[in-house]
């Protein structure tokens, strides 16, 4: 459960991450606890993670008999399969600060883990790239 320690009048300022002491409030600064980050920071992290995943998948796609094609469009990655026909969709979800993967008739929701410096599936601890590799292997 996240608690807001102090918020000034609808003004923005630096976001302090959990464990950081909250300094005396000054005008135009906000103080938060918990793992929430601002939307700009989330978008930068998600974009970097999806770019790294795209490069990884393109390298795998070029392997003999990879069995899939990857396509990036408007910040969304689509991994398409011909045999059997199917598709994975990997997309950032800024309002909840997660990367969502729709694959194998399931929705996988990854959170940013500052310690791992990656998006991680909470229930298994898997990072984004190894998780997608596993899901591709399970599909084929």
Model description:
This protein has 140 residues and is α+β, with helices and mostly antiparallel strands. It folds into 2 domains: 1-36, no CATH class; 39-139, Frataxin/CyaY (Metal Transport, Frataxin, Chain A), CATH 3.30.920.10. It is built from 2 helices and 6 strands, in the order αββββββα. The chain has helices at 39-61, 128-139, and strands at 68-73, 76-82, 85-93, 98-103, 106-113, 118-120. A 6-stranded antiparallel sheet has the order 1-2-3-4-5-6, covered by helices on one side. A hairpin with a 2-residue loop joins β2 and β3. It starts with 38 loop residues before the first helix and ends with a helix.
Topology, pairings included?
Elements: H1 39-61, E1 68-73, E2 76-82, E3 85-93, E4 98-103, E5 106-113, E6 118-120, H2 128-139
Antiparallel strand pairs: 1-2, 2-3, 3-4, 4-5, 5-6
List keywords for this structure.
140 residues; alpha+beta; Metal Transport, Frataxin, Chain A; 2 domains; 6-stranded antiparallel β-sheet; 2 helices; 6 strands; 25% helix; 28% strand; disordered N terminus
CATH class term of the largest domain: Alpha Beta
Strand content: 25-35%
| Low-confidence residue ranges | 1-34
Order of strands in the sheet with the most strands? 1-2-3-4-5-6
**CATH homologous superfamily name of the largest domain?**
Frataxin/CyaY
Q: How many individual helices? A: 2
Task: Give the radius of gyration.
Answer: 18 Å
CATH architecture of the largest domain: 2-Layer Sandwich
